[in-house]
Amino acid sequence: MRNYRKKIQNILLVLFLFFVACFVAKDALARNRAFVYDWYIKNFETTITVNKNSSLDIVERITADCGDAIGKHGIFRVLPMEIKIKNGETIKTPIKLISITNFSGKPYKYKTSYKNNVIIWRIGNPKVEVHGVHNYLIHYQVGNVINFRNPSFDELYWNILGTFWDLEIDNFHARIIFPKEIKKENTRMEYYTGYLGSKRKDLANYSWTAQNVLEFYSIHPLKKRQGITVSIIFPKGIFVPYHTSFWEKHKFEIFWGLAFLFPLIFIIIVLIAWWKYGREPRIKKPIIPIYKI
Q: How many Å from the N-terminal Cα to the C-terminal Cα in the chain?
């Protein structure tokens, strides 16, 4: 009997030590992630407000860590300025940046560039090298995101995380706020997680936390270029089509037009100045000098 009890005690001791080792290993791994040598995102919180004019107001709170990496100056935020809907049609989605700061409201230096209908914000001072954990608060607006093409319903089809992240994301949380007319009862929702084109649902979960508030939570860390795309359909008549301004429609044509126009204006100004001040005067009759003796 004593031997039996001793065996039970030994088994329980081994199981206890096993679980303790698992928790210690987990904590050690979490601590070791502080000693990283490239950027990764520890936490990504985004609040997406869906406006009745078919635009989104987006605030992203990003906590990123680059550990002891060398040559790091900040992060890149890359966003598409057009989306492809289910029928293959491309829709322009103009983006307006409001601010880029840290969580305390201190502005970051950044540079904006465009490439293949993508906007890129290079956040950080290129002359200052950074290390460790940094917080980024990015506030921007996106227009023309509601799809009105179906005669029975309107739809928001949107990647709430983005597929252009070249960083791993440990934790992600999104809060989507709809107008009060949008409720859980009058909407139908579908979502997809993973790489572009994936139909998986195992990387995130969701819940309605209020009648017009839908929240998503990551279940597992997200790898580079993975995203969370939502398709939410609701009754027609709540949203109005986005009004694209003349500048949004033709800003690239205006930019390139000015790029050619400014040199032309400069040449014209130089020619006018030369004509008025630089050219030699015309002499109609010869000037004969007269000498007196």
A: 152
